[in-house]
Design brief:
The protein has 93 residues and is mainly α. The chain has 3 helices and 2 strands. A two-stranded antiparallel ribbon has the order 1-2. A hairpin with a 2-residue loop joins strand 1 and strand 2.
Length: 93
């Protein structure tokens, strides 16, 4: 039997434990400080985050289209002009 692979031997090194699927948390002053995870799992987490961002963008675009359909929009030129006039009035006050 291989050492660290069952049978009461010493546990495998942390890096081997991580490669086998475990996640290790390193603490500093009793607080979580860093995590060690497998590189493939990190890539997976990055893909999930990108997918989440894309889904949020799609949701925002959908809400914008709903606003257009409902007529809840203003022209960019007139809105920007009104904002500039308001800022100029505040600056003079």
């Amino acid at each position: 039997m291989l050492p660290g692979r069952g049978g009461g031997g010493p546990p495998p090194p942390p890096v081997e434990q991580v490669k086998a699927g475990a996640e290790k948390i390193i603490t500093k002053n009793g607080e979580s400080y860093v995590a060690i995870i497998d590189a493939q799992r990190l890539d997976y987490y990055h893909r999930l985050e990108r997918e989440r961002i894309h889904l949020l963008l799609i949701d925002d675009a959908s809400k914008g289209l709903d606003d257009i359909i409902a007529g809840k929009v203003k022209g960019a030129h007139s809105t920007l002009s009104a904002l500039k006039r308001r800022r100029a009035a505040k600056a003079q006050a």
